[in-house]
Amino acid sequence: MKLFRFITAFIFLFILIVWVSFTGCNKDSSSDPVVLDSISVGVILPMDNANAQLQLNSMKLAFKEVNDAGGVGMGYPLRIELRSSEGYNREEIAVEKAQEILETTNQFVGFTTCYSSSSLGIANLFCKEQGIGAISGCASISILSGVSDYFERLCPVDEFEAEILINKAQYLGINNVAIAI
């Protein structure tokens, strides 16, 4: 249930940032607004990972709830443009898939990723170099901190999470801990 709440909060924050970016970045205020049929969000997930399908289902549910409530901005429905970063080098594959989304998707506003390896490629190439926004719900690698003003990680770094676990174990009087991955 906590994962669902976290992912729902993540999606809500992403949608809010997309909406603010989309409605607040009109370069020529004297022109008529562009009529859109939807707003596209690029989603990069390693679909060969069991958790990726759960995250995708959560995103679909959040997008459905937003769309059922009238969409964002001036009533634009959100659409997921999913690409998988599955494979050996997720960082490179994520970059290739993100480029594919950019080249083939209309009304594209930004990316969402969930894994550190996928997020690193997106953050470095698209966010940092091209000024395209991205959010990662669970990327915890410390090198993503401050990589770009256009990239936001919504969870703490691994070192901080480890410190919390150590403090909790000490508080409970636990001297030995095993971690299974």
End-to-end Cα distance, whole Å, is 21 Å
How confident is the prediction overall: mean pLDDT?
77
User: What oligomeric state do the depicted chains represent?
Assistant: single chain
Would you report the number of β strands? 5
Level of helix content? 40-55%
Low-confidence parts lasting 5 or more residues at pLDDT below 50? none
- Note the total helix count: 5
Outline, from the CA principal axes?
Answer: globular
Summarize this entry quickly.
With 181 residues, the protein is α/β, with parallel strands linked by helices.
Structure description:
This protein has 181 residues and is of the alpha/beta class. Helix content is 48%, strand content 14%. It is built from five helices and five strands. The protein has helices at 2-24, 50-68, 90-104, 116-130, 158-172; strands at residues 39-45, 78-84, 108-113, 134-136, 151-153. It has a five-stranded parallel sheet, with helices on both faces. Helix 4 (116-130) links the parallel strand 3 (108-113) and strand 4. Helix 3 (90-104) packs across helix 4. It is globular and about 60 Å long.
